[in-house]
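Residues pack. Consider this:
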Amino acid sequence: MTDKPENNLDFEWEIRSGFLIIQVKARRATVDMAPDIKERLFTEIDNGNINIIIDFSYVEFVDSSFLGALVAGLKQVKSKDGKIKISGLHPHVRITFELTRLDHLFKIYQTIEQAMREA
C-alpha cells in the first residue's frame, strides 16, 4: 500500500511497502536544504519510520552541509535499529560520496526498487 506523497519544492516524501522514501527534487542539495531534511528525518524516525530510502536521481551536486544532515539522520536511525539507503546517484554525486567515504556508511543502489528489494 502506498500513502499519498507529501510534496514541497525540494522533497517528495511517501511511505511505500514499509519504507519511507524521500526523493530530493532539486538539482543542488545544499546548506539551504540541510536543516529541513535533518529536522524531518528526526521527526520521521521518532515516529517509527526507520527504513528509509533517499533518492538522489534529480541531484547533480551535494554539499557537505547536506551530507552532514544525512549522517546525523543515520546516527539517529541506527540508534533505533533502522537503515538509510541511498539510490539514484549521478556520477558527480557518487564521487562525492566516495571521496568523503560515505559510500562505506550508506548502502547505495541504482534505483529505489533495488533498494527496497535488498535487505
Observations:
- The CA atoms of residues 30 and 63 lie 5 Å apart.
- Residues 1-5 have pLDDT under 50 and may be disordered.
